[in-house]
Amino acid sequence: MGLKENQKLLKKQVSLISERQPFLAKLGTEEKGHGRIEVRKYEFYDVLEMKKDERWNNCQIRTAIKVKRERIELKSGKKSVEDALLYEQYRWRIRRTSRSDQKTLASGNK
Q1: What's the order of all strands across the beta sheet hosting 63-73?
Q2: Where are the domains positioned within the chain?
Q3: 8 A C-beta contact, residue 65 and residue 88
Q4: Which residues, other chains included, contact 78 with Cβ-Cβ below 8 Å and sequence gap of 6+?
Q5: What are phi and psi of 84, to 5 degrees?
Q6: What's the pTM value of the predicted model, to 2 decimals?
Q7: CB 103 within 8 A of CB 79
């Protein structure tokens, strides 16, 4: 799930974790299609033990995922960059993969 602006405190806490602790795993994907190239970079962080606001205590948020997306429009050469924070209620099994397997892993291989 994405962390939205209406979850400001949780988003700030997860953002601080990604700045202060080492990531569990890092991977990237590259796709070409629809007239553009899209590169995604993922960093996974353990946040199970992170101190959270009381309303989040029962949801067992385990993993935060920092995503950076870069898109290049092939015709115009226009480049855009987007950052996002996601969280999951399960642990991701991270394994070494070949480049062809990374798309599967990044899209939710649990």
Answers
A1: 25-33, 36-46, 63-73, 79-88
A2: 5-92
A3: yes
A4: 72
A5: -145, 155
A6: 0.69
A7: no
